[in-house]
Amino acid sequence: MKITKTAFSNAIVTNYFDTSLALLKENFSEDQSVIISDSNIIKLYSNALVNRKVIIIEAGENNKTQAAADKIIEELLELDADKQFTIIGLGGGVVTDIAGYVSAIYKRGTKLSLVPTSVLAMTDAAIGGKNGVNFGKYKNMVGTTRQPECIFFDYSFLSTLPKQEWISGFAEIIKHACIKDDDLFEFLERHTLDDFMEDKVLMGQLIERNVAIKYAVVTHDELEKADRFLLNFGHTFGHAIENIYGLPHGYAVSLGMVAAAKISEEINNFHSADVKRISNLLEKYGLPVEMKTDPQAIFALMIKDKKRSGDAVNFVLLNRIGDAVAKKISFKQLQDMQNQIL
Amino acid sequence: MKITKTAFSNAIVTNYFDTSLALLKENFSEDQSVIISDSNIIKLYSNALVNRKVIIIEAGENNKTQAAADKIIEELLELDADKQFTIIGLGGGVVTDIAGYVSAIYKRGTKLSLVPTSVLAMTDAAIGGKNGVNFGKYKNMVGTTRQPECIFFDYSFLSTLPKQEWISGFAEIIKHACIKDDDLFEFLERHTLDDFMEDKVLMGQLIERNVAIKYAVVTHDELEKADRFLLNFGHTFGHAIENIYGLPHGYAVSLGMVAAAKISEEINNFHSADVKRISNLLEKYGLPVEMKTDPQAIFALMIKDKKRSGDAVNFVLLNRIGDAVAKKISFKQLQDMQNQIL
After folding, report:
1. Which among B63, B176, B250, B288 has most CB atoms closer than 10 A?
2. Residue ranges in B131-271 assigned as alpha helix (H)
């Protein structure tokens, strides 16, 4: 096990890498904590959670709603949970997002710890304090930014993770490489998905490296006034595609990154050879890079995006692999380019 | 007009005292702001709000719900409101609480300004960043602590305030005197409600003094780990009574303060003569000091109170007028005293 501490302006997060679920027992009394998890996780790990207070939500992005949050709050009241309780979000990104959100608003804030169980949650969703729920068809439209006290990285969860979720998680890993770390990009080019699925040590190193990239960005800009925004690379088109076509998050972000790379080529002097490298790397890790989409439906959703500002959308472009920049692009300009990018 | 700035660890609040609604025009463009208000206020002030984006909620504590927040979020989406929008909460405590809550969670946080229109909102609810909604019969069970950018105190709103709301507001003013300011207590003893209702300058001074008391407490303890907790004087029984009997907030807090003063006499050496002084002052300002209540129903609700901690409740007691202290009291001890205090 390896323990690190990450300091934010108003909080310190303790990270336990290469730990095990058993550590929860030592850290949190049964009386003063409650686990929020989903139906899939509970099926697999019910033995490890004997005697624990557990609130179960239905698995899946469709259940990341205010109604699910309300149901959790109702159960917390039934458990007589007070502000000193620790809410433990145990699951993928849907669970860690909703657990963080409930912890932020229940009684104006309880303690929070996260146990991410998917590649995506370990390398992205559980890191940095963003939480929230969807509102109708709009992703993450309601939520807060608030850091957990602890994050537990137990790599053994990955042994039961379906391959599709491994692939989806690698989209955010490739995103980190694209915007911040060309060495990581080359490292990923030299390996394959199977390498990481088969070698727990190698995967542990990859997770730590991605957590470090994300922390480096978000500790300097917790509330996304500048650099944190770059983490949205691929997410403007990605969120719209995810909502309309119901793709897994990483698959949609993959398509969004290809679109963003092409826009970077059109208006930011990004090399066409590097567009191809990104597209090749995504494909190598099993991610989609082409899909027939309806541009009108996508633009209609983008108008509601959190990244919109007036008639334009703040867009993340690449200067080169490992170096990103945010630029305002008008909806008109995007629509003019739609044949080249979608 | 007088402008002051109040610094919190993560925010600075600008306070405009003795200002007017016209100032909103100068400070907030019609394009980039939206007013949240209630049906009563809008009836009275619709002329001043011409050309403004306005979201109207039903007036009354019963409408301080997640459902009302969801409806506001829906309207914000229809208005294409983005994170740079300022939400302006214009109304009494229900409006400022719900506007603050929506501003905290919509797109993970928009700008927020408050225009309190009642005595209670000007001296208490709008100050200090607590926001939230009720959950079923449990008061303020969901919310956050987050400071507004600006607060506008326009005393002319008080000219249309019903007398019952004046009276309700004075409960929190008397509370401030009880826990922090014996000079203010004597000042209130020397005056009457009519003095303040008739003299806008005197009332303006009283509001400023109460805002200063509340800021002095909350800037040192924004997240209620210590001193801020004293502001809950009268609110443990008060919230329970408010929920069960549907009394206005200040009326219920008045009864709660009498109960807390009696407990202070029983177990904290608080003078019985001072219990009487508090009770007399509350009566002088039109507030109730006696009511037949059902102790069982009250204790059942208190178990769900945010201030509960295990088998005990954190209770605010008085040492003397102007000096309060928090003490844990077990439910059993409270129940043993119920004949003396309720």
Report:
1. B250
2. 163-180, 182-190, 193-198, 200-220, 235-245, 249-267
B195 touches chain A (CB under 8 A): no
Which H or E run contains A177?
Answer: helix A163-180
Whole-model pTM?
0.93
Asked if B9 and B146 count as a contact pair (C-beta separation under 8 A), the reply is no
**Interchain CB distance below 8 Å, B77 and A138:** yes
Backbone angles phi, psi at B73, to 5 degrees: -60, -40
Residue A34, token pair as written in the block: 């409650």
How far, in Å, CA of A29 to CA of A36, rounded?
15
> Are the Cβ atoms of A144 and B141 closer than 8 angstroms?
no
pLDDT (tens digit, 9 = 90+) per residue, B23-67? 888 889 999 999 999 999 999 998 888 889 999 999 999 999 999
Q: Do residue B142 and residue A109 have CB atoms under 8 angstroms apart?
A: no
Q: Kindly determine whether residue B303 and residue A138, on different chains, have CB atoms separated by under 8 Å.
A: no
Locate tokens 């100032």: which residue? B23
Q: How confident is the model at residue B173 (pLDDT cuts 50, 70, 90)?
A: very high
Give the H or E element holding residue B315: strand B312-320
Residues of B in contact with A140 (CB under 8 A): 108
DSSP-based three-state secondary structure for B240? helix
Nearest in space to B35 (alpha carbons), one of B92, B91, B117: B91
Cα–Cα distance list, B239 to A77, B210, B251, B299, B303 (Å): 16, 21, 10, 11, 12
Task: Determine the residue of chain B that is closest to A139 in CA distance.
Answer: B107
Residues B59, A236: Cα–Cα separation, whole Å:
38
Count Cα atoms within 13 angstroms, Cβ side, for B65: 12
Residue in chain A nearest B105 by alpha carbon: A143
Q: Which residues of A touch B328 (CB under 8 A)?
A: none
Contact between B41 and B165 (Cβ < 8 Å): no
- Can you name the residues that pair with A151 across neighbouring β-strands? A15, A114
